[in-house]
Amino acid sequence: MLRPVVAGLDGSRESLAAAHWAAREALRRGLPLRLVHAWEGLPDTAGRADLPEMRVPQSRARRMLRDTVAQLSESYPRLDLSGEQVRRQPGPALLDEAEDAELLVIGSQGLGAVGGFVLGSVAMGTAVHAERPVVLVRAGETAESEHLPDVSGRPSTRTAHRDVAVAVDTDGPCDDLLDFAFRAAELRRAPLRVVHAWHVPLTHGLPDARTRGSFRREAERELAALLEPWRQKFPAVYVTETLHEGRPAHVLPRAVSGSGLLVVGRRRKYPVIAHAGPVAHALVHHVTRPVVLVPHD
Fold first, then answer.
1. What is the pTM of this model?
2. What is the pLDDT at residue 274?
């Protein structure tokens, strides 16, 4: 059975952009798309559903889901699409949906705040506890955003895709991260930009040029060795390796600029998004393109 792409809806601009991104990704992967609206104001007990004060928000919720399904069906006629209103709190509902999903897509306001129907602690719990990749999409993301501008500098969907960027730590597990990144690049026929930050440990004091050069060469060797089996597995993906001296959380946001999609690891051991790992946290804060958080140990 195919795992669907799941997108969370709440009617916000962020969630609508996420739904459109999810539709395009589902088509690329040949997967169905499932839209889910979890209504936080409705308890699990069905008896409250018919209270007069609940009828107007219920009607709005049904209309929002129906209108979004209609809009996506018109925009992506080949898409296998379904939508459901889930009568549960959004956090638990999304986490359950993610278990059977290929990936979960939700809207993001950036700067650590995930918009709309996963606000505050719900957003944190969803982003860092899901066992499947979670994609954060900001309002304004369009199909043209995924592509390079045309020769006149105008947005276009007829040009090549922007790079897929992946932030790599050679000291930690990378298989799930690299598998997602290479597959995303392959699906888009896009280059893969592998970015890695290195620095001379403080125990070496103030390093001279020779010491810094030695550490950089070692970082280059480690990165090349890490990527070699993946280059062989995905021979059609053009890979560029970029190394930057400095702390990852400081240098990587600039290093991935201009990419169309950023893939970053999210360590399972951190309990809240503010501690999803300093690198993941910095990138979610500052990168404007869609960010994929891939869980790993």
1. 0.87
2. 41
